[in-house]
Write a structure and sequence with these properties.
The structure holds two protein chains of two kinds. Chain A is 40% helix and 15% strand. Chain A is an alpha/beta fold. Chain A folds into two domains: 30 residues, no CATH class; 193 residues, Rossmann fold, CATH 3.40.50.300. In chain A, strands 3-4-5-1-6-7 form a six-stranded mixed β-sheet, sandwiched between helices. In chain A, strand 6 and strand 7 form a beta hairpin. The radius of gyration of chain A is 20 Å and the shape is globular. Chain B is mainly α. Helices cover 73% and strands 1% of the residues of chain B. Chain B contains eleven helices and one strand. Chain B is globular and about 65 Å long. The relative contact order of chain B is 0.13. Classes of the chains: A alpha/beta, B mainly alpha. At the A-B interface, helix 1, strand 2 and helix 3 of A face strand 1, helix 2, helix 5 and helix 11 of B. Strand 2 of chain A pairs antiparallel with strand 1 of chain B, so a sheet runs across the interface.
Protein backbone atom coordinates (compact mmCIF):
# COMPACT_ATOMS: atom_id res chain seq x y z
CA UNK A 1 0.00 0.00 0.00
CA UNK A 2 1.43 3.36 -1.00
CA UNK A 3 0.93 6.35 1.19
CA UNK A 4 0.25 9.59 -0.58
CA UNK A 5 -1.34 7.93 -3.54
CA UNK A 6 -0.79 9.84 -6.75
CA UNK A 7 -3.78 10.54 -8.92
CA UNK A 8 -1.86 11.35 -12.05
CA UNK A 9 1.39 10.44 -13.73
CA UNK A 10 2.82 13.86 -13.08
CA UNK A 11 2.08 13.66 -9.37
CA UNK A 12 3.59 10.21 -9.21
CA UNK A 13 6.76 11.35 -10.88
CA UNK A 14 6.99 14.34 -8.60
CA UNK A 15 6.43 12.27 -5.49
CA UNK A 16 8.98 9.72 -6.58
CA UNK A 17 11.57 12.39 -7.07
CA UNK A 18 10.81 13.95 -3.75
CA UNK A 19 10.91 10.53 -2.07
CA UNK A 20 7.48 11.14 -0.73
CA UNK A 21 6.17 7.70 -1.47
CA UNK A 22 6.56 5.26 1.33
CA UNK A 23 5.54 1.71 0.76
CA UNK A 24 4.45 0.04 3.92
CA UNK A 25 3.12 -3.35 4.50
CA UNK A 26 -0.39 -3.00 5.69
CA UNK A 27 -2.20 -6.24 6.15
CA UNK A 28 -5.90 -5.92 6.71
CA UNK A 29 -6.03 -9.55 7.80
CA UNK A 30 -3.34 -11.71 9.38
CA UNK A 31 -3.10 -15.42 10.02
CA UNK A 32 -6.70 -16.19 9.30
CA UNK A 33 -7.32 -19.88 9.65
CA UNK A 34 -11.00 -20.42 9.30
CA UNK A 35 -13.22 -23.29 8.29
CA UNK A 36 -16.91 -22.72 7.92
CA UNK A 37 -18.93 -25.95 7.73
CA UNK A 38 -21.81 -26.14 5.33
CA UNK A 39 -25.26 -25.14 6.56
CA UNK A 40 -23.82 -23.15 9.41
CA UNK A 41 -24.89 -19.65 10.41
CA UNK A 42 -21.70 -17.84 11.33
CA UNK A 43 -21.94 -14.45 12.98
CA UNK A 44 -19.01 -12.05 12.56
CA UNK A 45 -18.39 -9.28 15.05
CA UNK A 46 -15.63 -6.82 15.63
CA UNK A 47 -14.80 -3.16 15.89
CA UNK A 48 -14.87 -0.98 12.80
CA UNK A 49 -11.68 -1.43 10.82
CA UNK A 50 -11.11 -4.91 12.20
CA UNK A 51 -11.11 -6.40 8.71
CA UNK A 52 -14.60 -7.87 8.56
CA UNK A 53 -15.47 -6.35 5.17
CA UNK A 54 -12.11 -7.38 3.77
CA UNK A 55 -12.74 -10.95 4.86
CA UNK A 56 -16.19 -10.89 3.27
CA UNK A 57 -14.73 -9.59 0.04
CA UNK A 58 -12.18 -12.36 -0.02
CA UNK A 59 -14.90 -14.94 0.48
CA UNK A 60 -16.94 -13.29 -2.28
CA UNK A 61 -13.90 -13.49 -4.58
CA UNK A 62 -13.80 -9.73 -4.98
CA UNK A 63 -10.33 -9.55 -3.43
CA UNK A 64 -7.68 -12.20 -3.88
CA UNK A 65 -5.67 -13.16 -0.80
CA UNK A 66 -2.10 -11.79 -0.81
CA UNK A 67 -0.82 -14.95 0.80
CA UNK A 68 -2.38 -18.26 1.58
CA UNK A 69 -5.37 -19.97 0.14
CA UNK A 70 -9.11 -19.76 0.17
CA UNK A 71 -11.34 -22.50 -1.14
CA UNK A 72 -15.07 -22.13 -1.45
CA UNK A 73 -17.56 -24.87 -2.16
CA UNK A 74 -20.77 -23.57 -3.63
CA UNK A 75 -22.18 -20.41 -5.14
CA UNK A 76 -21.79 -17.22 -3.18
CA UNK A 77 -24.32 -14.39 -3.06
CA UNK A 78 -22.57 -11.43 -1.50
CA UNK A 79 -24.52 -8.63 0.10
CA UNK A 80 -21.71 -6.24 0.76
CA UNK A 81 -23.73 -3.36 -0.50
CA UNK A 82 -27.31 -3.75 -1.46
CA UNK A 83 -27.53 -1.63 -4.56
CA UNK A 84 -24.16 -2.57 -6.04
CA UNK A 85 -25.37 -4.01 -9.30
CA UNK A 86 -28.26 -1.70 -9.95
CA UNK A 87 -28.26 0.66 -12.90
CA UNK A 88 -30.13 3.91 -12.45
CA UNK A 89 -31.17 4.16 -16.07
CA UNK A 90 -32.90 0.81 -16.19
CA UNK A 91 -36.35 -0.11 -14.93
CA UNK A 92 -36.92 -2.25 -11.85
CA UNK A 93 -37.66 -5.33 -13.89
CA UNK A 94 -34.58 -4.83 -16.07
CA UNK A 95 -32.49 -4.32 -12.96
CA UNK A 96 -33.70 -7.57 -11.48
CA UNK A 97 -32.44 -9.36 -14.58
CA UNK A 98 -29.15 -7.44 -14.63
CA UNK A 99 -28.38 -7.79 -10.93
CA UNK A 100 -29.28 -11.47 -10.94
CA UNK A 101 -27.01 -12.02 -13.94
CA UNK A 102 -24.18 -10.22 -12.21
CA UNK A 103 -24.68 -12.57 -9.29
CA UNK A 104 -24.27 -15.53 -11.59
CA UNK A 105 -27.68 -16.53 -12.85
CA UNK A 106 -28.53 -16.63 -16.54
CA UNK A 107 -30.67 -13.76 -17.83
CA UNK A 108 -33.24 -16.21 -19.14
CA UNK A 109 -33.79 -17.66 -15.68
CA UNK A 110 -33.94 -14.23 -14.13
CA UNK A 111 -36.65 -13.13 -16.55
CA UNK A 112 -38.78 -16.00 -15.33
CA UNK A 113 -38.25 -15.02 -11.74
CA UNK A 114 -38.89 -11.30 -12.08
CA UNK A 115 -42.52 -11.37 -11.03
CA UNK A 116 -41.86 -13.48 -7.99
CA UNK A 117 -38.98 -11.30 -6.89
CA UNK A 118 -40.91 -8.06 -7.32
CA UNK A 119 -43.78 -9.54 -5.39
CA UNK A 120 -41.61 -10.37 -2.41
CA UNK A 121 -40.06 -6.94 -2.52
CA UNK A 122 -43.54 -5.39 -2.79
CA UNK A 123 -42.40 -3.45 -5.83
CA UNK A 124 -44.66 -4.93 -8.52
CA UNK A 125 -46.21 -1.55 -9.25
CA UNK A 126 -42.78 -0.18 -10.06
CA UNK A 127 -41.80 -2.85 -12.54
CA UNK A 128 -41.41 -0.44 -15.45
CA UNK A 129 -40.16 2.55 -13.52
CA UNK A 130 -36.45 3.48 -13.63
CA UNK A 131 -34.87 2.92 -10.25
CA UNK A 132 -33.33 6.36 -10.33
CA UNK A 133 -36.11 7.69 -8.15
CA UNK A 134 -36.08 4.96 -5.55
CA UNK A 135 -35.57 5.59 -1.87
CA UNK A 136 -32.76 3.77 -0.11
CA UNK A 137 -35.31 1.54 1.56
CA UNK A 138 -36.75 0.47 -1.77
CA UNK A 139 -33.28 -0.19 -3.13
CA UNK A 140 -32.52 -2.29 -0.08
CA UNK A 141 -35.66 -4.37 -0.59
CA UNK A 142 -34.90 -4.81 -4.26
CA UNK A 143 -31.27 -5.77 -3.74
CA UNK A 144 -32.08 -8.17 -0.94
CA UNK A 145 -34.91 -9.77 -2.89
CA UNK A 146 -32.68 -10.49 -5.89
CA UNK A 147 -29.68 -11.66 -3.89
CA UNK A 148 -31.70 -14.11 -1.81
CA UNK A 149 -33.73 -15.36 -4.74
CA UNK A 150 -30.78 -16.76 -6.65
CA UNK A 151 -30.69 -19.75 -4.27
CA UNK A 152 -27.12 -19.31 -3.18
CA UNK A 153 -25.24 -22.05 -1.38
CA UNK A 154 -23.53 -19.39 0.68
CA UNK A 155 -24.96 -16.02 1.65
CA UNK A 156 -22.57 -13.34 2.83
CA UNK A 157 -24.24 -10.40 4.57
CA UNK A 158 -22.06 -7.43 5.48
CA UNK A 159 -23.95 -5.02 7.74
CA UNK A 160 -26.44 -4.17 5.04
CA UNK A 161 -29.67 -4.94 6.77
CA UNK A 162 -29.48 -2.12 9.25
CA UNK A 163 -30.69 0.41 6.69
CA UNK A 164 -34.20 -0.92 6.41
CA UNK A 165 -37.26 -0.07 8.45
CA UNK A 166 -38.86 -2.41 10.96
CA UNK A 167 -40.93 -4.18 8.37
CA UNK A 168 -37.87 -4.84 6.25
CA UNK A 169 -35.84 -6.06 9.22
CA UNK A 170 -38.58 -8.50 10.03
CA UNK A 171 -39.05 -9.80 6.51
CA UNK A 172 -35.38 -10.04 5.75
CA UNK A 173 -34.76 -12.03 8.92
CA UNK A 174 -37.62 -14.30 7.92
CA UNK A 175 -36.09 -14.76 4.48
CA UNK A 176 -32.74 -15.63 5.95
CA UNK A 177 -34.31 -18.18 8.27
CA UNK A 178 -36.10 -19.68 5.29
CA UNK A 179 -32.78 -19.98 3.47
CA UNK A 180 -31.23 -21.56 6.52
CA UNK A 181 -33.95 -24.20 6.53
CA UNK A 182 -33.10 -24.92 2.90
CA UNK A 183 -29.51 -25.46 3.90
CA UNK A 184 -27.84 -22.21 2.90
CA UNK A 185 -24.66 -21.37 4.74
CA UNK A 186 -24.87 -17.84 6.08
CA UNK A 187 -22.01 -15.57 7.09
CA UNK A 188 -23.46 -12.58 8.85
CA UNK A 189 -21.54 -9.48 9.80
CA UNK A 190 -23.41 -7.23 12.15
CA UNK A 191 -23.19 -4.87 15.07
CA UNK A 192 -26.68 -5.97 16.07
CA UNK A 193 -25.76 -8.47 18.75
CA UNK A 194 -29.32 -9.52 19.51
CA UNK A 195 -29.80 -10.75 15.95
CA UNK A 196 -26.49 -12.56 16.11
CA UNK A 197 -27.48 -14.22 19.34
CA UNK A 198 -30.81 -15.35 17.97
CA UNK A 199 -29.64 -16.62 14.59
CA UNK A 200 -25.97 -17.60 14.77
CA UNK A 201 -24.79 -20.93 16.09
CA UNK A 202 -21.14 -19.88 15.96
CA UNK A 203 -19.54 -16.48 15.93
CA UNK A 204 -16.19 -15.14 14.81
CA UNK A 205 -14.64 -12.14 16.53
CA UNK A 206 -12.13 -10.20 14.43
CA UNK A 207 -9.86 -7.75 16.15
CA UNK A 208 -7.35 -5.64 14.20
CA UNK A 209 -7.12 -8.18 11.42
CA UNK A 210 -6.75 -11.28 13.55
CA UNK A 211 -9.12 -13.86 14.92
CA UNK A 212 -9.64 -13.03 18.56
CA UNK A 213 -12.17 -15.75 19.21
CA UNK A 214 -14.20 -18.21 17.24
CA UNK A 215 -16.76 -20.51 18.72
CA UNK A 216 -20.26 -20.86 20.19
CA UNK A 217 -22.12 -17.60 19.83
CA UNK A 218 -23.01 -17.00 23.44
CA UNK A 219 -19.40 -17.27 24.63
CA UNK A 220 -17.95 -15.10 21.92
CA UNK A 221 -20.59 -12.40 22.04
CA UNK A 222 -20.44 -12.11 25.80
CA UNK A 223 -16.66 -11.69 25.69
CA UNK A 224 -16.98 -9.18 22.88
CA UNK A 225 -19.54 -7.14 24.76
CA UNK A 226 -17.39 -7.12 27.85
CA UNK A 227 -14.37 -5.91 25.98
CA UNK A 228 -16.39 -3.20 24.25
CA UNK A 229 -17.74 -1.78 27.46
CA UNK A 230 -14.34 -1.61 29.16
CA UNK B 1 -25.48 -28.04 -2.68
CA UNK B 2 -22.35 -29.31 -4.40
CA UNK B 3 -19.22 -30.39 -2.65
CA UNK B 4 -17.04 -29.48 -5.60
CA UNK B 5 -14.74 -26.57 -5.02
CA UNK B 6 -16.11 -23.64 -6.98
CA UNK B 7 -13.37 -21.19 -6.08
CA UNK B 8 -9.81 -21.97 -5.17
CA UNK B 9 -7.52 -18.98 -5.06
CA UNK B 10 -4.44 -21.08 -5.70
CA UNK B 11 -5.81 -22.75 -8.81
CA UNK B 12 -3.41 -22.50 -11.72
CA UNK B 13 -4.87 -20.64 -14.59
CA UNK B 14 -3.64 -20.97 -18.13
CA UNK B 15 -3.65 -17.67 -19.97
CA UNK B 16 -6.58 -17.08 -22.30
CA UNK B 17 -8.07 -20.53 -21.78
CA UNK B 18 -9.33 -19.76 -18.31
CA UNK B 19 -10.51 -16.31 -19.41
CA UNK B 20 -12.42 -17.84 -22.31
CA UNK B 21 -14.06 -20.33 -20.02
CA UNK B 22 -15.01 -17.61 -17.52
CA UNK B 23 -16.50 -15.45 -20.24
CA UNK B 24 -18.26 -18.29 -22.01
CA UNK B 25 -19.99 -19.31 -18.80
CA UNK B 26 -21.23 -15.76 -18.35
CA UNK B 27 -22.29 -15.23 -21.95
CA UNK B 28 -25.85 -14.39 -20.96
CA UNK B 29 -24.57 -11.50 -18.90
CA UNK B 30 -22.29 -10.48 -21.76
CA UNK B 31 -25.29 -10.20 -24.05
CA UNK B 32 -27.13 -8.10 -21.49
CA UNK B 33 -24.20 -5.75 -21.11
CA UNK B 34 -23.87 -5.27 -24.87
CA UNK B 35 -27.57 -4.52 -25.23
CA UNK B 36 -27.44 -2.13 -22.30
CA UNK B 37 -24.39 -0.37 -23.79
CA UNK B 38 -26.18 0.13 -27.09
CA UNK B 39 -29.55 1.19 -25.71
CA UNK B 40 -28.03 3.71 -23.35
CA UNK B 41 -26.09 5.24 -26.19
CA UNK B 42 -29.11 5.55 -28.40
CA UNK B 43 -31.59 6.54 -25.73
CA UNK B 44 -29.74 9.73 -25.03
CA UNK B 45 -29.23 10.98 -28.56
CA UNK B 46 -31.88 12.80 -30.51
CA UNK B 47 -31.54 10.83 -33.69
CA UNK B 48 -30.73 7.53 -32.07
CA UNK B 49 -29.51 4.85 -34.43
CA UNK B 50 -29.48 7.27 -37.36
CA UNK B 51 -26.65 9.17 -35.76
CA UNK B 52 -24.36 6.19 -36.20
CA UNK B 53 -24.82 6.54 -39.93
CA UNK B 54 -24.97 10.32 -40.12
CA UNK B 55 -21.94 11.14 -38.03
CA UNK B 56 -19.34 9.50 -40.26
CA UNK B 57 -21.10 10.76 -43.39
CA UNK B 58 -20.97 14.34 -42.19
CA UNK B 59 -17.35 14.01 -41.12
CA UNK B 60 -16.36 12.45 -44.40
CA UNK B 61 -18.24 15.09 -46.38
CA UNK B 62 -16.19 17.83 -44.78
CA UNK B 63 -12.94 15.90 -45.06
CA UNK B 64 -13.70 15.16 -48.70
CA UNK B 65 -14.15 18.83 -49.46
CA UNK B 66 -10.97 19.79 -47.70
CA UNK B 67 -8.66 17.02 -48.86
CA UNK B 68 -9.95 16.34 -52.31
CA UNK B 69 -10.92 19.83 -53.43
CA UNK B 70 -8.56 22.04 -51.48
CA UNK B 71 -5.50 19.80 -51.07
CA UNK B 72 -6.27 17.92 -54.28
CA UNK B 73 -5.43 14.54 -52.85
CA UNK B 74 -6.47 11.63 -54.97
CA UNK B 75 -6.31 7.87 -54.74
CA UNK B 76 -5.37 6.20 -58.00
CA UNK B 77 -7.63 3.36 -59.02
CA UNK B 78 -10.46 4.01 -56.59
CA UNK B 79 -12.95 6.78 -55.89
CA UNK B 80 -11.56 9.04 -53.17
CA UNK B 81 -14.81 9.24 -51.28
CA UNK B 82 -15.05 5.47 -50.81
CA UNK B 83 -11.41 5.26 -49.82
CA UNK B 84 -11.95 8.04 -47.30
CA UNK B 85 -15.19 6.72 -45.84
CA UNK B 86 -13.90 3.18 -45.38
CA UNK B 87 -10.80 4.53 -43.65
CA UNK B 88 -12.68 6.87 -41.33
CA UNK B 89 -15.17 4.18 -40.33
CA UNK B 90 -12.50 1.67 -39.44
CA UNK B 91 -10.33 4.09 -37.48
CA UNK B 92 -13.36 5.40 -35.55
CA UNK B 93 -14.31 1.81 -34.79
CA UNK B 94 -10.90 1.33 -33.27
CA UNK B 95 -10.59 4.57 -31.30
CA UNK B 96 -14.11 4.58 -29.93
CA UNK B 97 -13.84 0.90 -29.17
CA UNK B 98 -10.63 1.26 -27.20
CA UNK B 99 -11.88 4.29 -25.28
CA UNK B 100 -15.12 2.63 -24.29
CA UNK B 101 -13.40 -0.60 -23.51
CA UNK B 102 -11.13 1.14 -21.07
CA UNK B 103 -13.92 3.25 -19.61
CA UNK B 104 -16.10 0.22 -19.13
CA UNK B 105 -13.94 -1.19 -16.41
CA UNK B 106 -13.53 2.11 -14.62
CA UNK B 107 -17.24 2.72 -14.97
CA UNK B 108 -18.06 -0.64 -13.49
CA UNK B 109 -15.69 -0.25 -10.59
CA UNK B 110 -18.66 0.18 -8.28
CA UNK B 111 -19.89 -3.27 -9.13
CA UNK B 112 -16.44 -4.85 -9.22
CA UNK B 113 -15.78 -3.64 -5.70
CA UNK B 114 -18.72 -5.57 -4.33
CA UNK B 115 -19.29 -8.61 -6.53
CA UNK B 116 -17.11 -10.94 -8.46
CA UNK B 117 -17.56 -10.61 -12.18
CA UNK B 118 -14.67 -11.29 -14.57
CA UNK B 119 -13.68 -7.71 -15.43
CA UNK B 120 -12.79 -8.72 -18.98
CA UNK B 121 -16.50 -9.21 -19.51
CA UNK B 122 -17.07 -5.47 -19.38
CA UNK B 123 -14.23 -4.79 -21.78
CA UNK B 124 -15.43 -7.37 -24.23
CA UNK B 125 -18.97 -6.01 -24.08
CA UNK B 126 -17.69 -2.57 -25.07
CA UNK B 127 -15.72 -4.09 -27.95
CA UNK B 128 -18.76 -6.00 -29.17
CA UNK B 129 -20.96 -2.93 -28.89
CA UNK B 130 -18.43 -1.00 -30.99
CA UNK B 131 -18.48 -3.83 -33.54
CA UNK B 132 -22.26 -3.71 -33.82
CA UNK B 133 -22.14 0.06 -34.25
CA UNK B 134 -19.53 -0.42 -36.96
CA UNK B 135 -21.75 -2.97 -38.64
CA UNK B 136 -24.59 -0.49 -38.76
CA UNK B 137 -22.27 2.16 -40.22
CA UNK B 138 -21.47 -0.19 -43.09
CA UNK B 139 -24.88 0.53 -44.52
CA UNK B 140 -24.04 4.10 -45.57
CA UNK B 141 -20.76 2.74 -46.96
CA UNK B 142 -22.71 0.28 -49.08
CA UNK B 143 -24.93 3.08 -50.32
CA UNK B 144 -22.02 5.35 -51.16
CA UNK B 145 -20.32 2.51 -53.01
CA UNK B 146 -23.44 1.95 -55.09
CA UNK B 147 -23.99 5.65 -55.75
CA UNK B 148 -20.41 6.28 -56.79
CA UNK B 149 -20.46 3.31 -59.13
CA UNK B 150 -17.84 1.13 -57.50
CA UNK B 151 -20.43 -1.52 -56.72
CA UNK B 152 -20.53 -4.11 -53.96
CA UNK B 153 -18.47 -7.24 -54.59
CA UNK B 154 -19.39 -10.57 -53.01
CA UNK B 155 -16.36 -10.25 -50.76
CA UNK B 156 -18.25 -7.59 -48.83
CA UNK B 157 -19.92 -10.44 -47.00
CA UNK B 158 -16.54 -11.43 -45.61
CA UNK B 159 -16.12 -8.16 -43.71
CA UNK B 160 -17.02 -9.91 -40.44
CA UNK B 161 -13.51 -11.38 -40.58
CA UNK B 162 -11.64 -8.13 -39.92
CA UNK B 163 -14.45 -7.14 -37.55
CA UNK B 164 -13.86 -10.17 -35.35
CA UNK B 165 -10.12 -9.57 -35.29
CA UNK B 166 -10.71 -5.93 -34.52
CA UNK B 167 -12.84 -6.82 -31.51
CA UNK B 168 -10.01 -9.02 -30.25
CA UNK B 169 -7.52 -6.23 -30.90
CA UNK B 170 -9.67 -3.60 -29.20
CA UNK B 171 -10.22 -5.79 -26.15
CA UNK B 172 -6.48 -6.35 -25.76
CA UNK B 173 -5.52 -2.71 -26.08
CA UNK B 174 -8.49 -1.59 -24.00
CA UNK B 175 -7.48 -3.88 -21.15
CA UNK B 176 -3.98 -2.40 -21.21
CA UNK B 177 -5.33 1.12 -21.00
CA UNK B 178 -7.85 0.16 -18.31
CA UNK B 179 -5.13 -1.42 -16.19
CA UNK B 180 -3.08 1.77 -16.39
CA UNK B 181 -6.12 3.99 -15.84
CA UNK B 182 -6.80 2.62 -12.38
CA UNK B 183 -3.35 3.75 -11.30
CA UNK B 184 -3.32 7.04 -13.16
CA UNK B 185 -6.48 8.61 -14.36
CA UNK B 186 -4.69 10.85 -16.85
CA UNK B 187 -3.82 7.82 -18.94
CA UNK B 188 -6.99 8.74 -20.81
CA UNK B 189 -5.46 12.04 -21.94
CA UNK B 190 -2.37 10.18 -23.10
CA UNK B 191 -4.48 7.55 -24.81
CA UNK B 192 -6.45 10.23 -26.63
CA UNK B 193 -3.29 11.75 -28.03
CA UNK B 194 -1.94 8.33 -28.98
CA UNK B 195 -5.19 7.49 -30.76
CA UNK B 196 -5.02 10.71 -32.74
CA UNK B 197 -1.43 9.93 -33.70
CA UNK B 198 -2.37 6.47 -34.90
CA UNK B 199 -5.23 7.96 -36.90
CA UNK B 200 -2.79 10.18 -38.74
CA UNK B 201 -0.39 7.33 -39.30
CA UNK B 202 -3.13 5.33 -41.00
CA UNK B 203 -3.76 6.05 -44.67
CA UNK B 204 -7.37 7.13 -44.25
CA UNK B 205 -7.37 10.36 -46.21
CA UNK B 206 -4.18 9.87 -48.19
CA UNK B 207 -2.91 7.01 -50.30
CA UNK B 208 -0.01 5.08 -48.76
CA UNK B 209 1.99 5.75 -51.90
CA UNK B 210 2.56 9.42 -51.12
CA UNK B 211 4.37 8.63 -47.89
CA UNK B 212 8.12 9.21 -48.45
CA UNK B 213 10.04 5.93 -48.64
CA UNK B 214 12.13 6.52 -45.54
CA UNK B 215 8.98 7.08 -43.48
CA UNK B 216 6.99 4.29 -45.00
CA UNK B 217 7.98 1.90 -42.20
CA UNK B 218 5.94 3.91 -39.71
CA UNK B 219 2.82 3.31 -41.73
CA UNK B 220 3.64 -0.31 -42.46
CA UNK B 221 4.05 -1.34 -38.85
CA UNK B 222 0.87 0.46 -37.83
CA UNK B 223 -1.53 -2.37 -36.94
CA UNK B 224 -4.49 -0.42 -38.22
CA UNK B 225 -2.95 -0.35 -41.67
CA UNK B 226 -3.15 -4.14 -41.88
CA UNK B 227 -6.77 -4.05 -40.78
CA UNK B 228 -7.53 -1.32 -43.27
CA UNK B 229 -5.90 -3.11 -46.18
CA UNK B 230 -7.92 -6.23 -45.46
CA UNK B 231 -11.12 -4.30 -44.94
CA UNK B 232 -10.81 -2.18 -48.08
CA UNK B 233 -9.89 -5.25 -50.11
CA UNK B 234 -13.04 -7.03 -49.01
CA UNK B 235 -15.35 -4.03 -49.09
CA UNK B 236 -14.82 -2.74 -52.61
CA UNK B 237 -11.46 -3.49 -54.12
CA UNK B 238 -12.55 -6.63 -55.93
CA UNK B 239 -9.43 -8.53 -55.07
CA UNK B 240 -8.15 -10.42 -52.09
CA UNK B 241 -5.15 -8.51 -50.80
CA UNK B 242 -1.86 -10.23 -50.21
CA UNK B 243 -1.91 -12.79 -47.41
CA UNK B 244 0.67 -10.94 -45.37
CA UNK B 245 -1.89 -8.27 -44.49
CA UNK B 246 -4.14 -10.97 -43.10
CA UNK B 247 -1.25 -12.43 -41.19
CA UNK B 248 -0.39 -9.01 -39.79
CA UNK B 249 -3.97 -8.43 -38.72
CA UNK B 250 -4.16 -11.79 -37.00
CA UNK B 251 -0.79 -11.46 -35.33
CA UNK B 252 -1.46 -7.98 -33.95
CA UNK B 253 -4.85 -8.99 -32.60
CA UNK B 254 -3.68 -12.09 -30.81
CA UNK B 255 -0.58 -10.38 -29.49
CA UNK B 256 -2.66 -7.50 -28.13
CA UNK B 257 -5.07 -9.93 -26.49
CA UNK B 258 -2.36 -12.03 -24.91
CA UNK B 259 -0.37 -9.10 -23.61
CA UNK B 260 -3.46 -7.17 -22.59
CA UNK B 261 -5.07 -9.99 -20.63
CA UNK B 262 -1.82 -11.11 -19.06
CA UNK B 263 -0.86 -7.63 -17.84
CA UNK B 264 -4.40 -6.87 -16.81
CA UNK B 265 -4.74 -9.99 -14.72
CA UNK B 266 -1.46 -9.34 -13.05
CA UNK B 267 -2.23 -5.77 -12.11
CA UNK B 268 -5.87 -6.45 -11.28
CA UNK B 269 -4.83 -8.15 -8.08
CA UNK B 270 -3.22 -4.95 -6.92
CA UNK B 271 -5.72 -2.61 -8.47
CA UNK B 272 -8.90 -3.96 -7.02
CA UNK B 273 -7.83 -2.80 -3.60
CA UNK B 274 -7.26 0.69 -4.90
CA UNK B 275 -10.68 1.03 -6.49
Amino acid sequence: MAHNRAASLKEFAVHLVRRQIRYEQFYALKQIDLKVPAHEFLGVVGANGAGKSTLMKIIARVLPPTEGRIAVRGTVAPMIELAAGLDNELTTAENVVLYGSLLGRSPREMRQRVDRILEWAELEDYADVPVRSFSSGMLARLGFAVATDVDPDILVVDEVLAVGDQAFQHRSTERIQELMRQGTTVIFVSHDLSTIRSLASSTLWLDRGEIRMCGPTEDVVTQYEQSASL
Amino acid sequence: MSSAVTYDSTERRTALVSEFRDIWSRRGLLGLLVVRNLTIRYKRSLLGVWWTALNPLLTVAIMFLVFSRVFRLATPGQPYVVYLLSGVLLVSFFSQGVTQCAFSIIGSSGVLKKLYVPPELFSLSAGLAAAITFGISLIPLLIVQLVVGVGVPWTFMLTPIPIVFMVIFITGIGLLVAAAAVYFYDIFEIANVALQLIAYLTPTFYPASIVPVHLRWAVDINPLFSFLQVFRGLAYQQHIVSWHWYAGMGAYSLAALLVGTRLFRRSWKNLVVLL
